[in-house]
Design goal:
Layout (H helix, E strand, L loop, with lengths): L4 H21 L5 H11 L18 H10 L3 H4 L8 H4 L3
């Protein structure tokens, strides 16, 4: 996918915000801890980075659930397969 720098940054910030929201509400992190986790999961990648934006192939909800509950979250916590409306409203 090819984005302008502004489009990439908009998407990056939106995913960081969503990931941090999940980490606060479901992962029990403080706002500062959730922000730090989001920055680690979604680092800035330069325009010439070979896999820039690859993390965007799944939404922040999925990456946060993997972080909180592990690879089998969809089996062990089927109620978390789909994000709640409060998460969807972030978009």
């Amino acid at each position: 996918m090819t984005w302008s720098e502004a489009e990439y940054l908009d998407h990056l910030h939106a995913e960081r915000r969503a990931f941090a929201w999940v980490m606060r509400h479901y992962g029990g992190l403080t706002p500062a801890g959730a922000t730090e986790a989001a920055l680690e999961c979604y680092p800035y990648e330069p325009a010439d980075h070979a896999c820039r934006g690859l993390v965007f192939h799944d939404e922040a909800w999925h990456w946060a659930m993997l972080t909180i509950h592990g690879d089998r979250y969809t089996v062990e916590h089927p109620e978390l397969v789909h994000p709640p409306s409060a998460y969807e409203a972030l978009g």
